[in-house]
Write the structure tokens for this entry.
Amino acid sequence: LFAPFVAALIVAALLNPAVRWLQRRLGWSRKLLSLLLVVVIFGVIGGCLGILTYAAANELVSLAQNWSGMLTQVEGFFDQMEALFARAMDPTALLSAAKAATDWAMRVPEFLLALVVFVMASYFLTADYPYHRTRAVQHLDESLLRFLQQVKATALAAFGGYLRAELLLS
């Protein structure tokens, strides 16, 4: 239930420095810059997914076109699999496969709704990130705030060390 909002909060925290930088450079409103960045980021991600889908479809078409040549090479494998499937395809196996397919199909609208909530929450949290951060800090205990700052500094230092080690190794 909270996963889209948590993911949107992470996106807002990651986009905040870019929004601040653009706001100083261009002088535009934070809401407009947030909208532009969210649209660009999700557009790039959607474009990459579209390209990957297109490439996978091309590979499937290529596989279908070369199927006759590969069929002769794997004919023995199919004979062995035929015996295995004959034993596995009793009515209970077919019913469980149909139930699994139905369950998967019923989750598609749930996923689409979560995606819409995630995109909208990303925009709203990015647009009002300084306000929400200030309000959250006001409600935290001072010792907890110091602890969280120490955890953040340690995590960033560890991540920087990891990246440096990977760079040196490569």
